[in-house]
Amino acid sequence: MLIKGLYRLSLIDFPNKIACILFLSGCNFRCPYCYNKALVLNEDIKGYSQEEIFDFLKSRIGLLDGVVISGGEPTLNRELPEFISRIKDLGFLVKLDTNGSNPEMLKQLTEKKLVNYIAMDLKAPLENYQSVCKTNIDIAKIKESLKIIADSGIEHELRATVLPALHTTEDIIEMAKTACSFGIKKFYLQQFSPKKSLLDADFEDAKPFSQQELEGIRTECLRYVDTEIRGKEK
Ligand code: SF4
Question: Where in the numbering of this chain does the Radical SAM core domain appear (predicted)?
Answer without folding.
Answer: 13-226
